[in-house]
């Protein structure tokens, strides 16, 4: 328990440092990351773009990334805004028709939403995966206190290998659903920006390497988010 608290504190400190670093980049180069609008993402187990931002946001030109974290390398080369605008991958007005609107192979970019902001997140390869137990928690950070009409958590089936196979709907099992949860029931936080966050438990139905696809249907509007997190289940 205390170990978990320590980890959370460390990652929040790191988020703060990265937020400051992102501002410093703007100051030095004048090349602004895409403005941070108020939306959200899965910060633990971090989604692909959040993970690349946390691990490399203050060092994104380091060539060591090419061998240590090659999928982040390709994501940063494709478009740094995928990371700077880590909270901005969503679509409005889907009418909850997720499967018809988002074809196989494009789930992690939400069918190249936001003019392809997250296209690199669909790339097949060895994304860094967080080690988790059979029962693990996800944390969704919501900067704008949208709340949730629902959150659906899908897990790739046993035997699916995300390092070699593109992700499709047929590879996924729905493992957890969180019902309507207004923002007033989320935990208020101040880092990396002020907002609210919700942590919820996920029960995996197998061990090994897997992708978690979280779909968040926000409450303020018909606004949906798809977020892919890579995990290694004990
Ligand atoms: Cu939003």
Task: List key phrases describing it.
234 residues, alpha+beta, Coagulation Factor XIII, Chain A, domain 1, 4-stranded antiparallel sheet, 26% helix, globular, binds copper (II) ion
How does this model look, in words?
The chain has one domain (about 1-234): chitin-binding protein cbp21 (Coagulation Factor XIII, Chain A, domain 1, Distorted Sandwich), CATH 2.70.50.50. The protein has seven helices and ten strands. The chain has helices at about 1-30, 50-55, 65-70, 70-80, 80-85, 100, 115, and strands at about 40-45, 90, 130, 135-140, 150-155, 170-180, 185-190, 195-205, 210-220, 225-234. The strands form two sheets. Strands 2, 3, 5, 6, 9 and 10 form a six-stranded mixed sheet that branches. A four-stranded antiparallel sheet has the order 1-4-8-7, with no helix packed on it. Helix 2 crosses helix 4. The longest helix has 28 residues, at about 1-30. The two termini are about 20 Å apart. Copper (II) ion (CU) binds near residues 38, 39, 144, 146 and 218.
What is the highest CATH level, the class?
Mainly Beta
Bound molecules: copper (II) ion
Strand content: 25-35%
Q: Which CATH architecture would you pick?
A: Distorted Sandwich
**Helical residue percent band:** 25-40%
Give the strand tally: 10
CATH topology: Coagulation Factor XIII, Chain A, domain 1
How big is the Rg? Answer: 17 Å
Low-confidence stretches: 1-10, 20-35
Biggest beta sheet attributes: 6 strands, mixed
Query: Please, what is the average pLDDT?
Result: 89
Q: What is the CA–CA distance across the termini? A: 18 Å
Shape: globular
CATH H-tier superfamily: chitin-binding protein cbp21
The SSE order reads: HEHHHHEHHEEEEEEEE
- Tally of alpha and pi helices: 7
